[in-house]
């Protein structure tokens, strides 16, 4: 991934140097495990082994195999009696897939931390704007009143679900294999058990030459789900930031510029950035799914090339997206006055359902009440008068039976929001 969308800690995990460092950890753990279970009867201590990336790359250019290049470069540093035991009984993907699980696990720790930071920001803002009235929109049209806190609380719950599933997936993905060329074990299965325990992994239930790629599909899927949710939220903010709506806006420091040509512009470029990167993250899901679908028998190399790109890139992208969107939420500018004004933009048409239900309580059939209110809304729209005013002057027996207090109740904003406390309590008691 390019530097522009890369954060340092996540980037480090997906460097070649770090990959070989983790592979070294696996190989060392194998030697120690073989000693512990009596398979290797040597007292020789393993010296500190340094990963020389330049040497590994030099050897790989000659032999065309990165794992063997790693094995040769590291074996040189071992005492003679250990050199022949280094990588003995293993296939390339024993250290490679096990070390990949270690890196995936570390990467998910960063993503989890990112998610927790976003959840905290969303929760704080949701509580702050818990009672701030806002028009709810369906199909891009005014529907009925909600609160801005309620909107943010929906986002909070969605991200909380992602955190729940992420933790389940981490548990499934934290597996290693030391089971040889086709998964039928060259070394004792006890070696695998000891190695995984040393590395804080679990032995995979069963494997071929590789850990099954369905596990990586789940890993990428939760990351893409997170990215897709962020895109949805960012799109909401972009729409609400339109001058015609102007209910929210990304924080815009005085020194920031929105356009090289138009000094007045305050573009929602952070949210646009989120939407753009989410498309890229989603595109990587297809090759990951195909890696699982088309791998031949116990092993083919279909997955190898694209995994060097897809896995690092999606982890790096989602790490960046979460951090950036958390900043957007923390610095979000909210115009509560404009939100209230927009509720009444349609001359109280948003109270049409309450009016219809009130008519049914007066004995009007629901279908008839629906038709009547629809006509009243049209009259209000055409004449520019509030719907409540049109109701008061309409010539209809059921309408004339409404008392002033009943009309006030029908067109009361608070009646729409009376369960806000209940909703917040229901959601937040699960924290």
Query: In CATH terms, what is the architecture of the largest domain?
Result: Up-down Bundle
Text of the CATH class of the largest domain = Mainly Alpha
Q: Given the C-alpha coordinates, what overall shape results?
A: elongated
Report the portion of residues in β strands. Answer: under 5%
Number of strands: 6
Radius of gyration (Å): 30 Å
Mean pLDDT: 94
Q: What composes the largest sheet?
A: 2 strands, antiparallel
Spans of at least 5 consecutive residues whose pLDDT stays below 50 are: none
The tally of structural domains comes to 2
Q: Give the helix proportion (percent range).
A: 55-70%
What report would you give on this structure?
63% of the residues lie in helices and 5% in strands. The chain has 431 residues and is mainly α. Strand 1 (133-138) and strand 2 form a beta hairpin. The longest helix has 36 residues, at 93-128. It is elongated, with a radius of gyration of 30 Å. The mean pLDDT is 94.
Search tags:
single chain; 431 residues; mainly alpha; Fumarase C, Chain A, domain 2; Ribonucleotide Reductase Protein R1, domain 1; 2 domains; two-stranded antiparallel sheet; two-stranded parallel ribbon; 6 strands; elongated
Brief rundown of the structure:
The protein is mostly helical and 431 residues long. The protein has 20 helices and six strands.
Architecture blueprint of SSEs:
Blueprint: H1 8-13, H2 16-36, H3 53-63, H4 66-75, H5 80-83, H6 93-128, E1 133-138, E2 141-147, H7 148-173, E3 175-176, H8 189-198, E4 202-203, H9 214-240, E5 248-249, H10 269-283, H11 285-294, H12 302-330, E6 333-334, H13 336-343, H14 352-361, H15 366-383, H16 387-393, H17 397-400, H18 404-410, H19 413-416, H20 420-428
Parallel strand pairs: 3-4
Antiparallel strand pairs: 1-2, 5-6
